[in-house]
Design a protein that fits this description.
The protein is mainly α. It has one domain (66-306): MetI-like fold, CATH 1.10.3720.10. Helices cover 69% and strands 0% of the residues. α2 (14-45) runs antiparallel to α14 (269-301), α5 (78-108) runs antiparallel to α11 (200-216) and α11 runs antiparallel to α14 (269-301). It starts with a helix and ends in a 5-residue tail after the last helix. InterPro entries: MetI-like, MetI-like_sf.
Length: 306
């Protein structure tokens, strides 16, 4: 193998080598452009807020401090809201992925005579919806206001996820499903024991999409549960924290410390925004490496058939 690779490199023309070098340079630059904003946010969040106002913070904090994180995590509701966000993300992702997969399997079956109509009805919801007020009235009629399940029920079936999973299932060998039916398996047993295990890559992909949505969502908290502190999520609390810091700083004419008064070690909207970005994105960044191989495979195979 090494000999063949050496022969291949030897046969490369000057144009091929120039293209490879240009491609490597482009990919390195793209990687730097992609990673730099996150690294810069991390540096700003770890830098003293009064020093950050001067600018010039790029990839490394100039005055290292944990004051920004201390300010964020000293908020009374932050731990409970983190628990709500984690619970919402885990429960919502599991339920939505399973239900979306069931719907996708149903509309992927040729024997389901209404599958084209149902697919069209689902796709239309991606372009048109009732609007903010009808959605609010619907949640009120379903008695979901002030409930944890208002975060879960509206997203039980994700249309985009259904389309992706359906395309993946349609690409599976039909003979495997037929052999299961010959052995006496019903549709649900076939789905549960055959289709789901074979669909691990696309399920991991759609689960990541769903988890990111649930983790980052805050507007539905504002809309449905803003009066219920015990149902507040991390993103909503961070949003309120940023608004309060802006209001406090504007009223005081300067920056504020964690207790609301002026201090040498103060926080600013910029430092709080950077800290919030790191706190909110770190869990997803930690989970993604474990799903990366499934994510790439699921996105590739999920588009084989339309």
């Amino acid at each position: 193998m090494a000999k063949l690779q050496g022969t291949y490199r030897h046969r490369l023309s000057f144009g091929d080598r120039a293209f490879d070098i240009a491609n490597y340079i482009f990919m390195i630059l793209l990687m730097i452009v992609t990673i730099y904003p996150f690294v810069n946010m991390l540096a700003v969040s770890l830098n003293d807020a009064s020093d950050s106002v001067k600018g010039g913070i790029y990839v490394w904090p100039r005055v290292l401090t944990w004051d920004n994180y201390d300010y964020v995590f000293k908020q009374a509701t932050i731990l409970h809201s983190t628990f709500i966000s984690v619970a919402r993300t885990v429960i919502g992702t599991l339920i939505s992925t399973f239900c979306s997969a069931m719907v996708a399997y149903t509309i992927s079956r040729p024997e389901f005579v209404l599958r084209k109509f149902v697919t069209l009805a689902f796709v239309l919801t991606m372009y048109f919806n009732g609007g903010l007020i009808p959605n609010f009235l619907l949640m009120r009629e379903l008695d979901l206001l002030g409930s944890f399940w208002v975060y879960i029920v509206p997203g039980i079936v994700g249309v985009f996820n259904v389309i992706v999973i359906r395309s993946f299932i349609e690409a599976l060998p039909e003979g495997i499903l037929e052999s299961a039916r010959i052995d006496g398996a019903g549709e649900f047993t076939t789905f549960l024991r055959i289709v789901l295990p074979l669909s691990t890559p696309v399920l991991a992909t759609t689960s990541l999409f769903t988890a990111v949505y649930h983790w980052n969502s805050w507007f539905d908290v504002f809309l449905y549960n803003s009066s219920f502190i015990d149902l507040s999520t991390l993103q909503y609390e961070l949003m309120k924290m940023l608004q309060n810091s802006n209001a406090s700083i504007s009223s005081s004419g300067g920056s504020m410390d964690g207790s609301g008064g002026s201090s040498a070690n103060f926080v600013t909207p910029t430092s709080i925004r950077a800290t919030m970005t790191i706190v909110a994105s770190l869990p997803i960044v930690m989970v993604y490496p474990f799903l990366q191989r499934y994510f790439v495979k699921g996105m590739t195979l999920g588009g084989v058939k339309g």
